[in-house]
């Protein structure tokens, strides 16, 4: 059985499922039991599982990460939630110096099965300290797994896999995905970490995407399809480890690579994709790969500056066309997002899934 | 101080001005032209006004996400603050920061940021610079009860005490961190100010809705800080009227009771001050009305300024990355 539910509800379902299956799963974070319940994702958990397993916490990200590590050493599976990824930066020490290497530096004696949910903000002037998409930071650290589900089903399936994985997993949610509706299987439904998802099949170009950029890519690929351009669209889902098999075999087929990212361009996941493909599939490439990501500058708050800052379907359409030797479309034809405001989450998009 | 009518009038004016600015933002927010997260301080004006009154223009101040009151009381430019919230090029941060990132170096307001606790060590660093330069300025750090839970708070206070730095720590305890009440974040029956005194920092508390009380306490403290007396911490209890972030009221959510909210509304720092000044004949109704209308005029002009100010040009998104 599958239900049509939102991405936010899918996360809530995964939490309920995990906590029902395993008493050692606990859930905490600033506001998890408040009236808004982290955009609905943790609503009802405290009522169902009690205040010992579901609780609010002090504004103490670093300490509370260390607490999760300690608890996990004794068999607890903590799921920590942070309303913005940016707030979690205060916990980089516990994450990087402890969580990521405990298993390794003690010769595999113990592991740290914690899940850390980080929300990436965007729009409405979230600005420089409320919108940073730092997946590449986390993916850079050996010992961490990093996932970024783009669909409601993946959100549930990957959260369950993350919680029951024996390693620390960074689970990154983009705020603009929370409204997305999709078919989500009931019960214990899992998506394996490390497996990408091919959303569209085509021969002309490989587009590698992640998180919210996948939604923009879907729109772009659809329009491109109408113009006779067919794309392989791969949603990574897992950033660490990455499903290199799927990436490479697609590039071998198309010979062209466009990598999308929600983060800053330099040193990004898109950069890593391009680097690896260039190293391992150079002879298959018919031209230099391209990436679409954020410019290397902090997110400005002003709506006037945020407008061109974020990349949209139109950018993907025209970059793809350029790569394939077609002309750039006039704005009226390529602006798929025309009726969608720039700085509020897109309610019109409910997903093709 | 009670005899100094001029100071009393200025305190009242500062509070009324902050309130009117916040309430105007609230009433105009739904025009959706101010497109950034905005944390209003209606109800909490007394601390900002009193501390702003005590500090000299060349003293430093830093603050957090809820900084409008602190910025204005320290002498920040109202036009530029409103323009910043509008994301315009005349904004105090050129439209790049928004409501949560205010600055006016010309009056010593060295920045407010949105990561809880983020500016506490910055304020201590400013104090270190004061000590190195041997001036008698003071560095003031504004923050909420939530900041007390961050490690950086303890690390910063420890250093300030260790080096006997001229820091004024001002904690506005409004009992909530977003929708999380104090009791789920800190042990009950433990006063913040007492705990801080355990770290070795001179520490006091007071009624954050009594502007005269705050003024007197902070004034005495600042004199001694300038004298080399070292850091001083204050916990002032007060209350935020509107929602944590945004322009609405949020008592319908149920994280706090209507009774609690109403009981704090009765402790409105501005009405209390007004009645007191009336009773003691420090001010007349005419003078109050005039004060209010001056304030209103100034605010209208500020909104006009913001509306008229152009949006920054697109290229400027890529400037200011490096100095
Ligand atoms: C490090 C960090 N964690 C969490 C947040 C989310 N957050 C924004 S404001 C706020 C409330 C902080 O409460 P307090 O310091 O008491 O200030 P108040 O909002 O009550 O003025 C929180 C938790 C944040 N901005 N930074």
Percentage of residues in strands of chain B: 5-15%
- Gross morphology of chain B is globular
Order of helices and strands of chain A: EHEHEHEHHHEHEHEEEEHEEHEHEHHH
* Most extensive interface between two protein chains, with residue counts: A-B, 39 and 42 residues
How is this fold's topology laid out?
The complex is a heterodimer of chains A (353) and B (323).
Chain A: E1 2-6, H1 7-21, E2 25-28, H2 45-49, E3 54-55, H3 61-73, E4 77-82, H4 85-88, H5 92-99, H6 102-105, E5 115-120, H7 135-139, E6 145-147, H8 152-163, E7 169-174, E8 181-185, E9 197-200, E10 205-209, H9 211-226, E11 231-235, E12 238-240, H10 244-254, E13 257-264, H11 269-280, E14 290-294, H12 303-309, H13 313-323, H14 331-334
Parallel strand pairs in A: 2-3, 2-4, 4-5, 5-7, 6-7, 10-11, 10-13, 13-14
Antiparallel strand pairs in A: 1-8, 6-12, 9-11
Helix pairs in contact in A: 1-8, 3-5, 9-13
Chain B: H1 5-29, H2 45-54, E1 60-63, H3 68-73, H4 78-85, E2 109-112, H5 120-133, E3 139-144, H6 151-162, E4 167-173, E5 176-177, E6 180-181, H7 192-199, E7 202-207, H8 211-229, E8 232-237, H9 258-266, H10 269-279, H11 285-308
Parallel strand pairs in B: 1-2, 1-3, 3-4, 4-8, 7-8
Antiparallel strand pairs in B: 5-6
Helix pairs in contact in B: 1-2, 1-10, 1-11, 2-8, 4-11, 5-6
The complex binds thiamine diphosphate.
Brief summary:
In chain A, 36% of the residues lie in helices and 19% in strands. Chain A has helices at 7-21, 45-49, 61-73, 85-88, 92-99, 102-105, 135-139, 152-163, 211-226, 244-254, 269-280, 303-309, 313-323, 331-334; strands at residues 2-6, 25-28, 54-55, 77-82, 115-120, 145-147, 169-174, 181-185, 197-200, 205-209, 231-235, 238-240, 257-264, 290-294. Helix content of chain B is 45%, strand content 11%.
Based on the model shown, name its key terms.
heterodimer, A: 353 residues, alpha/beta, seven-stranded mixed sheet, five-stranded mixed sheet, 14 helices, 14 strands, B: 323 residues, two-stranded antiparallel sheet, 11 helices, 8 strands, 11% strand, binds thiamine diphosphate
